[in-house]
DNA sequence: AAAGTGTACTAAGCTGGGTAGTACAGTTGC
DNA sequence: GCAACTGTACTACCCAGCTTAGTACACTTT
């Protein structure tokens, strides 16, 4: 489901967060779909369950997943994420800031707006 | 010239890198314009010169600035950055990957493509 | 009752960011 | 030539954060 890069300087729990967030926002994980349990994912990735738990807890605080004690953790709907404290509008403003910085750098490297916009969709399947 | 956020979890040298890169790619720093010296910026920001040096060294490795021993450090031209080892095409591919992830999350939050494209330019002045 | 689930702690080790201090070589201006 | 500036290159140390290890509790499902 996920692969870790130990050469990457980013913390493991951050890589897990980004990977799961990516699957959720792209639709690879559908709303209300069950995520692997903390313990099973810890076994799969051969890391400590606490590390998974941290990623899950922060993703829940940001509104991307929700957890039910005794049952498991599930992907949230976008409309739920928007209503999360951590998310809207602070998160959205942060995303827009990063978007503008990315676009500025791509322009700096010589790309025009038409090329950038077409890059938003081309070859989405990795 | 720059402001640091000590509440931010991001390392100081990373904040300096991002701030200078932002000024360069947006044109706030013109090509061949001289940057503050490592020591003077260290005094201004009240931090250790080694931290500035690290930011400058990495920015130079990524092609955004160039340094001349004894003279100073200067903003590079975009055409130079593209020719840098670290930059093109690895850097560009990484930027495109991040762009697609950002757009996916903005769509997840309910924005359509027209809104996202218009956000690329509106209110650029912060 | 048993197994699996999320949740909540404490304790410890390790890596990396940041500081402090020093030193050397090249450039500029007097 | 000399002083003051510049970038560059080290070593050493402290500390916050990441990660692991271990344990425990409450809830759900079978």
Question: Can you describe what's shown?
Answer:
- The structure is a homodimer of 126-residue chains.
- Chain A has 126 residues and is mostly helical.
- Chain A has 2 domains: 1-77, Orthogonal Bundle (Arc Repressor Mutant, subunit A), CATH 1.10.10.10; 89-126, no CATH class.
- Chain A is built from 6 helices and 2 strands, in the order αααββααα.
- Chain A has helices spanning 12-26, 38-45, 49-61, 78-82, 90-108, 113-119, and strands at 65-68, 72-75.
- Chain A has a two-stranded antiparallel ribbon with strand order 1-2.
- In chain A, α2 packs across α3 (49-61).
- In chain A, 21% of the residues are buried.
- Chain A binds chain B through residues 21-22, 24-26, 78-79, 81-82, 87-88, 91-92, 95-96, 98-110, 113, 116-117, 119-120, 124, and chain B through 18, 21-22, 24-26, 78-79, 81-82, 87-88, 91-92, 95-96, 98-110, 113, 116-117, 119-120, 124.
- Chain A binds a DNA duplex (30 and 30 nucleotides) through α1, α2 and α3.
Strand order of the largest sheet of chain A: 1-2
CATH superfamily of the largest domain in chain A: Winged helix-like DNA-binding domain superfamily/Winged helix DNA-binding domain
Largest sheet of chain A: 2 strands, antiparallel
Biggest interface, chains and residue tallies = A-B, 34 and 35 residues
Stretches of chain A where pLDDT is under 50 for at least 5 consecutive residues are none
What is the helix content of chain A?
A: 40-55%
CATH topology of the largest domain in chain A: Arc Repressor Mutant, subunit A
The span between the termini of chain A is 15 Å
CATH architecture of the largest domain in chain A: Orthogonal Bundle
Question: Total number of β-strand segments of chain A?
Answer: 2
Question: What's the number of helices of chain A?
Answer: 6
Rg estimate of chain A, integer Å: 17 Å
Please, what is the average pLDDT of chain A?
89
Q: Give the strand content of chain A.
A: 5-15%
Look at the structure and give the CATH class of the largest domain in chain A: Mainly Alpha
Query: What gross morphology of chain A would you assign?
Result: globular
